[in-house]
Every structure is written in C-alpha cells, then in structure tokens.
Amino acid sequence: MTASGFLAYVLALSIVAAIPGPGVVALVARALASGFRAGMAFAAGLILGDLTYLAAAVFGLSRMAEALGDVFVVVRIGAALYLGYLAVQLWRSAARTQTVTGRRGDRPCASFLAGLTVTLANPKTIVFYLAVLPTLLDLRAVTGRDFATLVAVTALVLIVVMTPYAALASRARHTLQNSAFHRRLSRSAAAIMAGAAIWTVARRT
C-alpha cells in the first residue's frame, strides 16, 4: 500500500467519523448522563465495532456480510431496543438525582457494550467499510503489516474525533451543580438516546 492510499483512507475516515450519526449522538448522550469515563468506554466500543468491519473488508468478508443481511437487521433492532432501554433509565433517574454525579450501575463494561452494539448496527459504518473502503484502497494488496497500520490509524483517528465529543459533553454536565439542571440534562440525554434508537431502526442506508 502507498502513502497516498493511507492518506486517502485517513481523510475519508476522519470526515465520516466527524459527521454526527447515531454513534456520535449516543456517545454525547452517554457522556452527558454519566461523565467522561463512561463516554470514553462507549467510544472504545465504537472503535472495536469499526475495527470489526475493517477486518471484514480487508479479509474479504463483505460477501458474507451481505449474505447475513437479515442478521444485521436483527442486530440493528437489538441496538435500538438497548438504546431505548438506556433512554428510559435516564429519564427515570432524572426524578431521583440530587447531584450531578454518575448514575449507579454505569459501569465501563456496560458503556463499552453499548458502543459496540451501536456501531455494529450503524448503516453508515457498514457502508463505509464494506462499500466505500474498497474504492479507496486495493484490499487485495494489503499485507499483514498494512493491516496492522490500518488498525492503528483507524483507532487513532477515531480517538481523536470522539474524545472532544465526550470531553465537551462531560464538561457541560458539570456546568451547574444543582438538581434542577441535572434533571433537565438527564432528560435531554434520554431524548437524544431515544432519537438514536429511532434513527437506528429507521435508517436503511
């Protein structure tokens, strides 16, 4: 692979990752509700999902992915249901919260799993890696070293793009230390999460 090929991939991935979609929206909602740590755990799940599709593209699994189209529908519905569950929990917690602190039970592993589920069900991610990526790189020429570089570059780009979203949302969460503000914030995050759930089901391409 050439340097120009890697550069084209980095630029395309940066643009696609920065465009708000269900992953970014859900990340912001998670960081708003539970803080920076939960947001970054969610981002780690998003990154693993991207790397899963990257491996599928590089190792020629795109046809298998197409053959398993019905499975992806099930995954998308499952992701939407999980996001809806999170939205309900956030809305209910708003009435109980007295201070701006993370909700009990917001463990990093739960945020990580949520991020992974959202990415695996995200049509934008699927289209980028299984349809757009082959037009940017000659995947038949990718060596083991090239793949390792792609993994590192992908993770780095996504960290650079996602971290500011999580940091800004977490910072906004601590702007006012009062229960009324936090109730509004939690309900706003719940609405965002519910919107991401609806988008996940409704979006087809």
Distance from first to last alpha carbon: 29 Å
User: Which word captures the global form?
Assistant: globular
Main sheet overview: none
- Number of E-state strands: 0
Record the SSE blueprint.
Blueprint: H1 3-18, H2 22-34, H3 36-58, H4 62-67, H5 69-96, H6 108-120, H7 123-136, H8 144-173, H9 179-202
Helix pairs in contact: 1-7, 1-8, 2-3, 2-6, 2-8, 2-9, 3-6, 3-7, 3-8, 5-6, 5-9
Entry summary:
81% of the residues lie in helices and 0% in strands. It has nine helices and no strands.
How would you explain this protein's 3D organization?
The chain contains nine helices and no strands. By secondary structure, the protein is mainly α. It is globular, with a radius of gyration of 18 Å. About 4% of the residues have low confidence.
Question: Can you tag this structure with a few keywords?
Answer:
205 residues, mainly alpha
